[in-house]
Design a protein that fits this description.
Order of helices and strands: HHHHHHHHHHHHHH
Helix content: over 70%
Strand content: under 5%
Length: 390
């Protein structure tokens, strides 16, 4: 099969326009960080539209978590590629990123023009509890597919959860779970079969980018700097903050600590990927051209990585050892999602209003399969109203 051709999954097939419209909608409504974004994608492409099976979605989610760059954006790119080939890859990634980039650029303009950020506290107050319910629904639906009625995988999921709770690095949790799962499968297989065995190696994806060493912030320097960040950063927006601080504040002295914190805050409170922090910083350095250059640079590696490894994911699943590795990564991914959700819940469920929002959202999602977009919008309205009252 040609690597550019989408895989028929015995589920509904989508065209490029369907992919573009879905991810444009998600780009406008997907608040809450990578775990929430992935949960919303699962709700849309697995439950509601039935484009992809839960098992295939888990494999793509795990692959997106193992490569550098913004994992939720890369998952969107995977889904688009799966459904509509290269055009679907471009449509899904571009439409998911574009709304956040435009909103962030507008906020950067306001920041430069007025010297402060727009007030978004009320909106986040109402949206966060809804996000908790959305992520929990996704975990609840995906967990049985990941565990596969295996006591070993259930135990491994508990072990991965414990590792995440004690702040083991996310990549360490994923790779460690994969290695343990592959080792267990190898031992079990040898105990069951004394005959021939098959093996496979999952090669790690490595990348490096050149960092421009210059005291002036030109567009080329901006592009190379964010290209490097997009090619090497794993994990959440907090990991991104550490990389940007080391480069832009400590090493290159392009911006102050306060400006960097404001930039990351904007990336986290706008819908879509947190990596649009680069859009904000690019605007501060070079206006609208800088915002465009920084955005393209930080997301470009993700498109390349997904296009490169998508054919490998199918081969990995067909290999016994590599497939077991992927099973371990799947339960590790869900463990990380669960721990992130619990921690977010500590800051989101702070009073009777937020607890009620979370419970009501959970009921509407599970019982009536309500579109998460409407829940996000309702949460924002409730948050604004409650903010006015408070």
């Amino acid at each position: 099969m040609n690597a550019d051709e989408p895989v028929a999954d015995a589920h509904e097939r989508a065209g490029v326009s369907d992919v573009a419209l879905l991810f444009l909608k998600l780009g406008v409504t997907a608040f809450g960080g990578p775990a929430a974004h992935m949960a919303m994608m699962e709700n849309e492409v697995v439950r509601r539209r039935r484009w992809i099976s839960p098992e295939r979605f888990l494999d793509m989610m795990s692959a997106a978590s193992l490569i550098p760059g913004p994992s939720s954006s890369e998952l969107a790119i995977f889904v688009g590629y799966e459904q509509a080939g290269v055009l679907g890859l471009l449509a899904a990634g571009g439409c998911f990123i574009l709304p956040a980039a435009l909103i962030t650029t507008a906020m950067a303009w306001a920041y430069v023009r007025f010297g402060s950020l727009p007030h978004v506290g009320g909106v986040l107050y109402g949206i966060k509890p809804v996000v908790i319910a959305i992520v929990l629904q996704a975990i609840w639906g995906l967990a049985p597919k990941a565990i596969k009625r295996s006591r070993w995988l259930a135990f491994l999921g508990g072990l991965a959860t414990l590792a995440a709770v004690v702040d083991v690095d996310a990549i360490g949790v994923l790779v460690g779970a994969g290695i343990l799962s592959a080792a267990h499968d190898r031992v079990s297989f040898r105990e069951r079969e004394d005959s021939s065995h098959r093996g496979s190696a999952l090669g790690p994806v490595a990348a490096a980018g050149a960092l421009a060493s210059t005291s002036s912030v030109g567009l080329l320097a901006l592009f190379l700097t964010f290209l490097k960040v997009g090619a090497v950063v794993f994990g959440s927006g907090y990991v991104l903050l550490a990389f940007l601080r080391a480069d832009l504040v400590d090493r290159l002295h392009w911006m102050t600590e306060s400006q960097l914190i404001d930039a990351v805050a904007v990336g986290q409170v706008t819908p879509g990927p947190v990596f649009t922090t680069a859009t904000f910083i690019g605007y501060l350095f070079a206006g609208f051209p800088g915002a465009l250059v920084a955005t393209v640079a930080i997301f470009l590696p993700g498109f390349v990585f997904v296009a490169a490894i998508r054919p490998i994911v199918a081969r990995v699943r067909r290999s016994r050892v590599a497939g077991a590795f992927l099973d371990g990564v799947n339960v590790g991914s869900l463990a990380l999602m669960a721990v992130v959700t619990v921690r977010l819940g500590g800051s989101a469920l702070i009073d009777p209003v937020t607890v009620t929002l979370a419970l009501a959202s959970a009921v509407l999602l599970v019982r009536f399969n309500l579109n998460s977009t409407w829940l996000i919008a309702a949460g924002a309205l409730v948050g604004l109203a409650a903010g006015d009252v408070r």
